[in-house]
Design a protein that fits this description.
homodimer
């Protein structure tokens, strides 16, 4: 199983708008990607900081996620609210 | 739902010993903690760096995890292999 932990910082005041788009993406991924076993949005205790926890059965499932229409369109929509690029920690489950 | 992302650095050469104890802890948590919905050990692409992804139904489940015999005994056993204290990002799911 592969996993990722993504850190996202949003522009001050964009929290609500970001959450709306991010939650739409979470719903789509969980509904349409059988190879994705976890796609969860969380808030940290640092202001304006969010994280995605993600788990995929294999590399094909990761590729399917990145190639999906919902990832491309909602990812682009989220982009306007971000302060800098997301940081991604890529993981292999033990 | 509450979550945590833990970063652990192990002493060079301790990877195998650490994994043995950490996997025993993962097995115990998944078998004995109904309030813990994910407890997963992963390796990052940085040498000697591991992560736990954790999800709990509520704060009581987090407290039960910390109070458990397996967490105390295996956590102490893991300690000898660590290079410095674990870093913990505490999360609230959106």
């Amino acid at each position: 199983m592969l996993a990722a932990f993504v850190t996202i910082k949003v522009k001050p005041g964009s929290e609500e708008a970001f959450e709306t788009v991010a939650k739409a993406l979470v719903a789509k991924v969980n509904a349409d990607e059988p190879g994705c076993k976890l796609y969860q949005l969380s808030r940290s205790d640092q202001p304006g900081t969010y994280h995605f926890m993600e788990r995929y059965v294999d590399q094909d499932a990761v590729a399917a996620h990145r190639a999906s229409d919902h990832y491309k369109s909602l990812g682009r929509e989220m982009g306007q609210y971000l302060e800098g690029p997301p940081e991604i920690v890529r993981l292999t489950e033990v």
